[in-house]
Fold this sequence. Notes:
Two copies of one chain form a homodimer.
Chain A: H1 11-21, E1 30-31, H2 34-40, E2 43-48, H3 58-68, H4 71-75, E3 78-81, H5 85-97, E4 101-106, H6 111-119, E5 123-127, H7 134-145, E6 148-149, H8 156-173, E7 178-182, H9 187-199, E8 204-210, H10 215-222, H11 248-254, E9 257-261, H12 263-275, H13 287-294, E10 303-308, H14 315-329
Parallel strand pairs in A: 2-10, 3-4, 3-6, 4-5, 7-8, 7-10, 8-9
Antiparallel strand pairs in A: 1-2
Amino acid sequence: MPRDFPAPPVFADLMEAKARLAPHVHRTPVMTSRSFDAETGARVFFKCETFQRGGAFKFRGAMNAILALPEAARARGVVAYSSGNHAQGLAYAAKIAGIPATIVMPRDAPALKIAATRGYGAEVVFYDRYSESREEIGRRIAEAQDASLIPPFDHPDVIAGQGTATIELLEETGPLDALFVPLGGGGLLAGAALAAQALSPGCRVFGVEPAAGNDGQMSLAKGEIVEIPVPRSIADGAIVTAVGRHNFPVLRDAVTAIETVTDAELVAMMRFHAERMKLYVEPTGCLPGAAIRKQAASLAGKRVGAILSGGNVDLARFAELVLAAGEEAA
Amino acid sequence: MPRDFPAPPVFADLMEAKARLAPHVHRTPVMTSRSFDAETGARVFFKCETFQRGGAFKFRGAMNAILALPEAARARGVVAYSSGNHAQGLAYAAKIAGIPATIVMPRDAPALKIAATRGYGAEVVFYDRYSESREEIGRRIAEAQDASLIPPFDHPDVIAGQGTATIELLEETGPLDALFVPLGGGGLLAGAALAAQALSPGCRVFGVEPAAGNDGQMSLAKGEIVEIPVPRSIADGAIVTAVGRHNFPVLRDAVTAIETVTDAELVAMMRFHAERMKLYVEPTGCLPGAAIRKQAASLAGKRVGAILSGGNVDLARFAELVLAAGEEAA
């Protein structure tokens, strides 16, 4: 029988990650909103990874990958390329593990994310998102420093770590009918799908990506990884050019479908999270709620999970986005 | 021995309120922030009443006052005057109790609060904050409808209800060295002081009010209630002219001191709550954090509580406040 190469992670890897991460991650709260339920007709459970260490779920995968390294390799440090949250997550995890970290970040990454990454003691190296290859720069630095490259999503230990968010959610809610998860490179979604498959069989799992960059949707439709030019969307955690090689087989086998939402729909959801739920959520974290609103007709009476992936958005940027949307609406 | 008249509530009233409210209130989360602790040198526990039903602690007092009414009186409905959060809290509580509610609100109350109050099915009657007496209008309506007037803070059942937030906080944290609480009319603060006195003896209890309206501070200094003109501050939940008659004796006997903060300090704290803690907090809710920052020198190594009273601020207003502050800083 042919076997996917590289081997995708399995649920046992998630349980191992959960035990490994227990002393380090926050068990983030699960919140509900009567008004969101009234609007959609569903019963929606929001897993608030905005309150995770480093402000996003990324800390889980980064910390798990570091802890899974052999001790000698771990001591030599880690390198990552990231549009933001993985950078912070890995920098924070490296700080806790007491090892050096170098982060390759796009020059136009949010100032808050750059400052936070440096605040955790990591060295930041910049690249141009639209002309340079972050993968190549990351690999070069890792070789020069004999350090371990921890990619933001295309790594079994990263996927397993991200999956622990969904394990926690399902432990709290019990079985769900559907689960909506932001989709960038597929770390969070692959982990969520593996967790749901094991703990809530029959739960339909949806990835949600920006309409401007629906490579994940195209990849599932085609049955192979489709690469696209760097998409432009306010969901800066989801503007990748392709899902990962470790991620794709899991998505193909365990994800029901990929939904897309527009930037305007993301801003509307940001407003709802803030005004009605008192939650400060970055655009990427608004993908699930926005998709649930669009799919509400098929979710009536259902128990639905949503992963609010993070809250790392500059306040100035946040204010500009919601004010611009308010003016359009007026 | 002389006795205060009217009799202030005692801790037993809070425990009764807690039992009465148990099926109705959210047990809101207590959050911490490593960066706030690093900045202040204290260990600070934020009780997030932003996540309370209706978006603020006010639901507790309003619901307790309604549930404490004799059944016949309750059925005839309730009336309130409020600068906002009490209006929403009472309207929401009345909806749950299935009784009619009329709310007297200032014409310049935040649009979000007016809309939410109406959304709970209450009738809204407007008045001019700077020329009319809301107390008088409220009393007139209550008499005409034979309904019960539930004041926003000057009422033993309201104070007892608000105190349940601090009971929950102390149940979760254990004894604290200090507790910081927003001060408007003194409902939340009187309840907090009674709870702390009983459950964490020795805990220093601080009220925090806007520097522009320090009537509470003056009242404690003078030993009697001092009335001031309507203060102007962005902390719209704390711009009252005087603390309540039921509240004052409790504040006098159980509160350590009243601290004040400026609007600029409130905005800086709003920014911190959003960017660093991912919490959407209204200006009044930022009073405790802002005061803790100012008092940090005396709080080093201490375990400190803070009541984040609510999150009911228009998003447009929120965005304008933080953007204006950002421009000043730049």
